[in-house]
Automatic annotation (TrEMBL):
Single Gene Ontology MF annotation: lipopolysaccharide binding
Upper lineage: Bacteria, Pseudomonadati, Pseudomonadota, Gammaproteobacteria, Vibrionales
Pfam families named in the record: LptE
Membrane disposition: Lipid-anchor
Main location, first listed in the record: membrane
Transmembrane intervals: none
UniProt-annotated stretches for the region Disordered: 187-208
UniProt subcellular location: Cell outer membrane
Organism: Vibrio sinaloensis DSM 21326
Protein name: LPS-assembly lipoprotein LptE
UniProt-listed PANTHER family: LPS-ASSEMBLY LIPOPROTEIN LPTE (PTHR38098)
Biological process according to GO: Gram-negative-bacterium-type cell outer membrane assembly; lipopolysaccharide transport
Gene that encodes the chain: lptE
Protein's job: Together with LptD, is involved in the assembly of lipopolysaccharide (LPS) at the surface of the outer membrane. Required for the proper assembly of LptD. Binds LPS and may serve as the LPS recognition site at the outer membrane.
Tagged with keyword Lipid metabolism: no
Length: 208
């Protein structure tokens, strides 16, 4: 019994040592694990400005950047900047009950933001996150709580999408110019996010 436990301990120790060694090698080669997205080195450090520095969306954006190991610093002329221009939520009725009250509602969160890279230029994007849900007037309080949770999840997805879009700027930075052609990014959404539709498009670009 003692020998078996000893062998198990030795095997676990070997796995742990191997994992630590691999992590050290990756770090030594300049490779960093940054969430699910590879942020260009030029955007490792940036400033974050916003239409409302204390909004929930701004707070979530800061959290997503830190999760991707992006250092947030004070704005400066020689530092890349991510500026959150606006955030709004709209809705439309998809179906009605017999008493003409809304039965199914579609909510869309719109976020506009601008990424500026010194000596390269800036790009302004618009991201939308859409989700529908059933409204039950007999459980108004519960539905109100659910609505708040849905809106926060939409903000989280929008923040994640912004980081994805920043990762896509790697090619522009390598070519030392922003692609001024309008592009549309509609990522596949899987897992718990299947109820949401996410879309991003370029709305403006300025080359320095």
């Amino acid at each position: 019994m003692f020998r078996r436990e000893s062998r198990l301990f030795s095997f676990s120790a070997i796995k742990l040592t191997s994992a630590l060694l691999m992590t050290s090698l990756l770090a030594g080669c300049g490779f960093h694990l940054r969430g699910d997205y590879s942020i260009p080195d030029e955007l490792n450090t940036l400033s974050l400005t916003s239409y409302d520095s204390y909004s929930t969306f701004t707070r979530m954006m800061k959290g997503q950047l830190r999760l991707s190991e992006v250092k947030i610093v004070t704005p400066a002329a020689d530092v890349p900047n991510l500026h959150l221009e606006s955030e709004s939520i709209g809705e439309r009725t998809l179906s009605l009950y017999q008493n003409t009250r809304a039965a199914e509602i579609e909510i869309t969160l719109y976020a506009s933001y601008r990424v500026t890279v010194p000596e390269l230029g800036s790009k302004t994007y618009s991201t939308s996150v859409t989700r529908s849900y059933l409204d039950n007037p007999l459980s108004a309080l519960a539905k109100s709580v659910e609505r708040d949770m849905i809106e926060d999840e939409m903000r989280k997805l929008a923040a994640t999408q912004i980081v994805r879009q920043m990762a896509r700027l790697k090619a522009d930075i390598e070519h030392n110019e922003f692609d001024t052609e309008e592009d549309v990014m509609q990522p596949s959404v899987t897992g718990n996010e299947t109820q949401y539709q996410v879309k991003t498009q370029v709305t403006d670009s300025a080359v320095q």
